[in-house]
Design goal:
Elements lengths: L1 H12 L14 E8 L1 H12 L7 E5 L17 E9 H11 L3 H16 L8 H23 L2
Parallel strand pairs: 1-3
Antiparallel strand pairs: 2-3
Helix pairs in contact: 1-5, 3-4, 4-5
Length: 149
C-alpha cells in the first residue's frame, strides 16, 4: 500500500495542481515526523495558539506551490517542509473510521502534503472545497491502484 501511495502522491506533485516540473525539480523532499499527544499539543499551542492535540500539522517552506504561485523555486531538489502526525490521534481516528492505521496515516500525510503545497481549508469555504476535492481525488487514486494488484 505504501509504495502505491507514494507513486500516486509523486504523480500529483508533478500534476497541473502544482507549479513543480519533473525536469527541473527531479527530487522533492518532505520531512515526516511522528509524535505523541503531549508533544503534538505543545507544537499546536506554540505555532497555532491552540492548546489541544491534533492529527496533523504542516510547516511549509514555501507560501504556495500551486499552479498560480508567485514563489520562485530554484532548479534542483525542492524541500517542501515538515509534516507532523500524532500517532495517538491517527490510531484513534483509524478505529473511529474502522480502517487500517496505515490508511489513516496515508490520509493524514496527503492532507499535510496539500498544506505544504499551499492549499488551506481554513481560509474560506471555496478553499476548503478545493482542498477536499483534491484530497478525495488522491485517496481514490491510491485506492484504485491497490485494487489493481
Amino acid at each position: 500500500m505504501l509504495k502505491d501511495s507514494l507513486i500516486v502522491l509523486s504523480n500529483f506533485l508533478y500534476s497541473k495542481n502544482t507549479c513543480l516540473d519533473k525536469k527541473v525539480h527531479e527530487e522533492i523532499e518532505v520531512d515526516l515526523h511522528f509524535c505523541g499527544d503531549s508533544r503534538m499539543k505543545q507544537i499546536n499551542r506554540e505555532h497555532r495558539g491552540k492548546d489541544k492535540t491534533t492529527d496533523v500539522l504542516s510547516f511549509p517552506m514555501y507560501e504556495s506551490l500551486r499552479p498560480d504561485s508567485t514563489d520562485f523555486v530554484l532548479p534542483g531538489p525542492v524541500m517542501l517542509g515538515d509534516i507532523i502526525i500524532s500517532r495517538n490521534v491517527a490510531a484513534k481516528q483509524a478505529r473511529d473510521f474502522d480502517i487500517e492505521l496505515e490508511q489513516e496515516v496515508i490520509h493524514l500525510f496527503c492532507h499535510g502534503l496539500l498544506h505544504l503545497l499551499g492549499y488551506d481549508h481554513e481560509i474560506s469555504q471555496e478553499e476548503e472545497e478545493i482542498m477536499e476535492a483534491l484530497e478525495k481525488e488522491i485517496l481514490m487514486k491510491i485506492k484504485k491502484s491497490r485494487q489493481k494488484k
